[in-house]
Amino acid sequence: MILSTHAVVGGAIASLFPSHPVLVAVAAFASHFAIDAIPHWDYPLRAITFKPGANNRRLLADPRLFFDLALIGFDACAGLLIAIWLFVTPATIGVIVLGALAGMTPDPLQVVYKVLPKQPLTTLQRFHRWTHAKRRLSWPLGISSQALFAASVSWIVLTVG
Ligand SMILES: [Zn+2]
């Protein structure tokens, strides 16, 4: 899923139990793998590749990395702002931001793994690939279904929570 979806779900989880930040961090981090298992669409990156065996040693020297990082940064900021807009109260801003960030964290850790393929990142990367949906949806369906999913989770949490 794109980072915005992960941020909204992480923020939603945080709003359920805002006085338990450790539980929020763990649950939001774990939610990443659960919702990545749903077939979806991810935007293509130019320099970074997550295929096993791909050589990313020269990644830091690749000028296309700037484009990738700008896109990832925009996605992450948009998700963070949406999560804040939906769930923050004056008392919960810190924990909502924590939940949103923890929900997104497994994806930047994939980039760290590509540059630094060491434990425990190797195991985490294997687990991430294993949980990630193998079926890829085409982009209009794959992105609208994500938006609908994030909206549904938000709606449930805002009405029930
Ligand atoms: Zn992921």
UniProtKB/TrEMBL annotation:
Keywords: Membrane, Transmembrane, Transmembrane helix. It comes from the Bacteria. The chain crosses the membrane at residues 137-158. This is DUF3307 domain-containing protein.
